[in-house]
Predict the structure of L-2,4-diaminobutyrate decarboxylase.
Amino acid sequence: MTTPNGNHMHTVDLETMKLREQVFEYARRRMNYDPPPLDGPKTISELRAAVPATVTEEGMGGIEALSLFENVLAEATISNDHPNYLSFIPCAPTEAATLFDLIVSASTIYGGSWMEGAGAVYAENQVLEWLATEAGMPEGAGGVFVQGGTLGNLSALVAARHTAKEALLATGKSLPARWRFACSSEAHSSLKAAARVMDVDIVPVPVNAEGRLTGEALEKTLEGDWDGIFAVVATGGTTNFGIVDELEAVGKVTKAHNVWFHVDGAYGIAAMLAPTTKHLFAGVALADSFIVDPHKWLFAPFDACALVYRDPELGRVTHTQHAEYLDALENPEEWNPSDYAYNLTRRPRGLPLWFSLATYGVAAYREAIEQNIQLAYKIANEIRRRPDLDLVRDPQLSVVVFTKKGWKLEDYTRWSNKLLADGIGFVVPSSHKGEPNTRFAIVNPRTSYESLVEILDTMV
Ligand SMILES: *Cc1c(COP(=O)(O)O)cnc(C)c1O
């Protein structure tokens, strides 16, 4: 048999055919759930009792393994795309993005080099270019889709330090005893992880009453001592509260001191697409690099982080791996995604987002994100209205943090466990300044006001 473009198709035996159909059938079934079952974790002893030895010399056969996955293993995972999964930052991929993830898997494209992946890299780069343009970055900005925000932040910071170091060496200046970067005290844990990996120090800058990093606080904290500071990281939407730092003011301070400005927008930069919140992100235009996770609020499946550099060449000289067998790949005309982050082999994980954008158009994204924000503001009003509940902070994006009067951590935990056990929602306790609270992180277009009100009603 041949396909319309002349490729040969192999004839598969009946058993393979059957497995293929069953796998597609399962994928179809999973995608048809409305909503998917929330499910929940099981203990290791429960799983031991329910799951036989699966990795054996003979194998157990695909049909059986698939059935074990569907009926036992999958049920012991929480569906992140359930509309009432409101913990951490959920993941709510579009139909098109999920479908295309299957195609990426079926295509075996090496996404690390232009030589092997040109068509895929070209499409991924269109998405990066679009993100850069939305952020107000100049032409030529670009980067790579890495596995997640943790790796994106690390890769950007390594490029920042490399750039600072080269600048000092080029002018014959001595290197600082310790390298440091500054970020707000509410910045994401991945920055501490990056500092550990890089063996550098963090200068924590206190936030203002609204939870934002400001330009003044940055200046004041450093008190004119910028020695060893190779980057300032501002957050475009904190994970816990969805608070956006004063990006423009912070960016201006970094320019005055000639220091790399990185914006961690893993969750929040998506909100630059929404009319209501666009203005909060004007300062990203000043950034030397930013990240945003499509698996958070750009409706793409796990796992993807778009890392964008204002001047990608600075990322390239930092991260390119050199080896005799890799040198065939180094053609200056060609864009090798591996060169722009701490990674080599990669799947073209930006493609599900590309296909989804191409399918629905950018306007649908703006609308969906705006709708999440309006829902967050609306449920915040309902929380304000209820005498037994208190908003911890006014939401800026789509995270709503609140407390129940008189509740201790045990009360939140008991309530949260029951909510999950009843299959209603996944809303875990959180805390702020040692005080327990809970939060709704809303990034799923299927999350409804009514279901959020129902969840509030269960807090008794
Ligand atoms: C989620 C998040 C990260 C880490 O991203 P991963 O994809 O989980 O590695 C970093 N920064 C912020 C602000 C985040 O919300």
Summary: The longest helix spans residues 362-385. The pocket of pyridoxal-5'-phosphate is lined by residues 89, 148-150, 153, 188, 190, 235, 239, 264, 266-267, 293, 305 (CB under 6 Å). The domain at 364-457 is CATH 3.90.1150.170 (Aspartate Aminotransferase, domain 1). The mean pLDDT is 96.
